[in-house]
Design brief:
The structure is a single chain. Helix content is 45%, strand content 10%. It is mainly alpha-helical. A two-stranded antiparallel ribbon has the order 1-2. It is elongated.
């Protein structure tokens, strides 16, 4: 059973990430916890889906969260702006007119 698990992992590394199992293990050993939240549970190999470049070690929750947000800095900045608007503007109901909020592209803060 262990032989099949290693064989499947080798296949997964080669075709999903374009690397060997040894390269995968070396990259995963760069951190013993999620680089976002610090969790040590269910660690994943985070990579760019376009280039396959390794980005770091994340827990499953943070890895899935990034994926759901589209894996872009712009989408993350929009989330930060959304969560920050009460602190910045004193109210969460800033968009009463139905217009889409405009974001400062540098730091993601609503204008």
């Amino acid at each position: 059973k262990e032989h099949y698990a290693k064989k499947d992992k080798h296949y997964h590394c080669k075709y999903k990430y374009g690397i060997t199992l040894d390269e995968y293990d070396k990259r995963m050993s760069t951190s013993d916890c999620c680089e976002i939240c610090g969790s040590k549970e269910s660690l994943c190999y985070d990579h760019c889906h376009i280039t396959k470049d390794f980005r770091g070690v994340l827990c499953r929750t943070c890895n899935l969260g990034l994926g759901q947000l589209g894996d872009t800095l712009e989408s993350i900045q929009k989330v930060v702006a959304y969560l920050s608007k009460e602190l910045i503007l004193g109210s969460t109901k800033v968009n009463k007119g139905g217009d889409k909020p405009k974001f400062n592209k540098v730091i993601g803060v609503q204008k």
